[in-house]
Design brief:
Length: 243
């Protein structure tokens, strides 16, 4: 997916958790390469996501959606609303990967319902574009378990998978490993090797820019913080400076 291929540097994005289009506009103006609207760890419904995606499109910033689960209906609806792709949590097996890719593609290559009178089809004015985009949707599996890491090459090889993404917090919890341990680093190296072999973009998420700079291996895209944490840290900095 081209949004994750920024020539000469890592693409920088952030999560959108706040249910206001103003947040999307501010993040776009800040210069992020892409945004990911977070339905998994934020109380965002489909209508709110639809509005956030509309703002992102108007601002010219690519926006993906992290869906809350592998539900085909949710994947289809956010793609119809104009999402550039989907991040899907807890994709642990090849069967999981095939299922979510199918949910994002039209028959005969998938099971997504066909309805071009939506934003992704320019409300019916661009039916060919809607059809073509449906065949090129990037589905990004989040690898968050030991099982998923072991199957990373096979998951990445599924046609329609657009990148590999490691959810470091969930992976650490699922494995019971310290994120600074050598064993945990070996798991991350396994995913990085799989992405390199398959020529897929590799992504992850961190809390701060310093953490992004300190990543020990190359990533094509990194999510740094989220709109709520960025607002909170900026507010704390102002208060601390004023006192």
């Amino acid at each position: 997916m081209t949004v994750f291929r920024t020539p000469g540097r890592t693409a920088i994005g952030t999560w959108v958790k706040l249910p206001t289009s103003d947040s999307v506009e501010l993040l776009a103006r800040a210069g992020f390469d892409f945004l990911v609207v977070d339905m998994e760890h934020a109380p965002l419904d489909v209508l709110t996501v639809h509005q956030l995606l509309g703002t992102a499109r108007g601002c010219g910033v690519p926006a993906l959606v992290r869906v809350p689960d592998r539900s085909p209906s949710t994947i289809s609806r956010v793609l119809d609303s104009g999402a550039s792709g989907v991040l899907v949590p807890h994709v642990d097996t090849v069967a999981d990967a095939r299922s979510v890719v199918s949910a994002g593609r039209f028959p005969p290559h998938g099971s997504r319902g066909y309805g071009p009178t939506v934003r992704a089809g320019a409300w019916g004015a661009d039916v060919p574009g809607y059809r073509a985009a449906g065949e090129q949707v990037a589905v990004v599996p989040q690898l968050e378990s030991r099982e998923a890491v072991a199957a990373a090459r096979e998951i990445g090889a599924v046609e329609g998978v657009g990148a590999l993404f490691v959810g470091p917090a969930d992976l650490a919890v699922a494995t019971g490993l310290d994120a600074s341990s050598a064993e945990f680093a070996a798991l991350l190296d396994d995913v990085a090797s799989a992405a390199t072999e398959l020529e897929l973009p590799l992504g992850t998420a961190v809390g701060t820019a310093a953490a992004a700079r300190a990543l020990p291996r190359h990533h094509d895209f990194v999510l740094i913080g989220n709109d709520a944490s960025l607002l909170g840290s900026a507010a704390r900095a102002v208060v601390a400076d004023a006192r």
